[in-house]
Amino acid sequence: MTIRVLLADDQALLRSAFRVLVDSEPDMEVVGEASDGAEAVRLAREERADVVLMDIRMPGTDGLAATRLISADPGLAHVRVVMLTTFEVDEYVVQSLRAGASGFLGKGSEPEELLNAIRVAAAGDALLSPAATKGLIAKFLAQGGDDDRDPARAERLEALTVREREVLVQVAGGHSNDEIAERLEVSPLTVKTHVNRAMAKLGARDRAQLVVIAYESGLVRPRVE
Asked: Where on the chain is 4-aspartylphosphate found, per UniProt (predicted)?
């Protein structure tokens, strides 16, 4: 199936460049362009977008606010948001994920990285761009310290089985299903089943939200390098 992509950025030139790149792929197409967050939310609904490439900094309703609106709308539950940042390591990364984004991508990424991010976001199978390190998300989610952890989410973890918790820890480490399967000596299909069950029990939209829950609940603690 063709991945329906929505571009949300206040720079027309950048949107044009993204459109040319995306439309050149046989498995995806640009279905709309938005210059601010409010327009992005409206078009996501009207154009039945699968993935939104969302700039964080836009006039009026910014990308973070727009992502929160999309995440809170049951009618847009299928929409995946990939945040576009000038620098992948900035204070907006954690806010993006907490707002409901499926991941983030630096604007300086290579074309193949951008296209790959769209595909993996649409599949719900990945969190970060290839240029991001696995420990980056832990660093930002930990910036609030123990006082920032969510007791309610910690209680919800009680609904998970022992194996589901083990898989969640691996997901939070940035590992793929194949990598987790090898680590736990089970099949990739079994891992996928555990991931899906954990998402359902915890009310997570995708793997990105599982990572947020894992760190905010205290199940996984960031390593100090």
From this structure: 55
Which of 66-80, 112-126, 142-156 has the highest mean predicted lDDT (pLDDT)?
A: 66-80
β-bridge partners, 30: 5
Q: In what order do the strands lie in the sheet with 103-106?
A: 28-34, 3-8, 51-55, 80-85, 103-106
Q: Phi/psi at 82 (nearest 5 deg)?
A: -110, 115
Which residues are CB-contacts of 64 (< 8 A; sequence separation ≥ 6)?
56, 92, 95, 96, 99
Whether 67 and 21 have beta carbons less than 8 Å apart is answered as no
